[in-house]
Amino acid sequence: MSLVPPRSPRAMSLSPVPAVSPGGVVAVVQVTSTADKEHNWQQCSALVRRAAERGARAVFLPEGFDFIGDSPQQSLALAEPLHGDIVGRYCQLAKECDVWLSLGGFHERGQDWDSTGRIYNCHLLLDNSGAVVAAYRKLHLFDAALPGAPALSESSFTNPGRELLPPIPTPVGKLGLAVCYDLRFPELAQALRGAGAQILTFPSAFTVPTGAAHWE
Prior knowledge:
The chain is α/β, with parallel strands linked by helices. It has helices spanning 37-53, 72-78, 85-97, 113-116, 186-194, 208-215, and strands at 2-4, 25-28, 56-63, 100-108, 120-126, 132-137, 143-144, 152-153, 168-170, 173-177, 199-201.
């Protein structure tokens, strides 16, 4: 887990916007998720509490914070709706710790689950009262065929989102919500920036080869 002060958007080579209010620190949580949801919850909740104790106003969790399944079939079986147990736990945690929580990629059984049998990759934002203030569903799904490795096809079991959300005001600045592979589509970031986003979020769960390629 790393704790960093919010960066001023004026450091970017883009049109100026009001500076981020320095109302505390931002915590970025890194974990290795597994298919064991209880294990992942214990890891994440402990780090959120630790960040809150150190003065964080907002805590950011990665894509797949809830779990990483061993197969698409397992991911579908483990997925929950927004009103399920996992989101309920994090809502209570945000309230108890008095922090905003960015839940970077939740495996969501949406309202169309019964008809599609597919899930959404959903980036949730909770405020410090425990309320869900935004739910962005990943627009760009990750399909890749890597030499010598199994093909990756998020679109085979995941529905794409349908809209880009406007930036959300928070105690650390206006957040633009995205997820992982959205990073490859600069028009999305430009649209969020043009709408006033001061912080762009791309919570990610990379494989080793794709992660290295992204950062390269």
